[in-house]
Inverse folding.
């Protein structure tokens, strides 16, 4: 190595950090769209984009789950009482 020879810059490290930055921005955008979906579903409107929808009964109430892979929106309706909405990550239990 010569004394006056410039060092190579970390191009591989720069590319890896650029990819990580893009992935972080995409995940944040996905969750922002998720909150818009949550508010639309809680107002009984059509969501911005559809996920898989499943329904079942538990503890005398009707549970409807809109699944969007990373998160899910859970509607828990107890007849003659109330309706609750919650946004949860994929590994969380729907209703306790």
């Amino acid at each position: 190595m010569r004394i006056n020879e410039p060092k190579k810059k970390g191009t591989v490290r720069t590319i890896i950090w650029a990819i990580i930055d893009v992935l972080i921005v995409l995940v944040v955008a996905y969750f922002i769209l998720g909150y818009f979906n949550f508010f639309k579903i809680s107002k009984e409107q059509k969501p911005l984009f559809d996920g898989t929808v499943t329904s079942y009964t538990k503890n005398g109430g009707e549970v409807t789950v809109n699944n969007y892979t990373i998160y899910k929106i859970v509607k828990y309706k107890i007849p003659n009482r109330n309706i609750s909405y919650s946004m949860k990550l994929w590994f969380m239990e729907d209703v306790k």
In short: Residues 11-42 form the longest helix (32 residues). The helical segments are 11-42. Strands lie at 52-58, 61-67, 71-78, 82-89. The chain is about 35% helix and 30% strand.
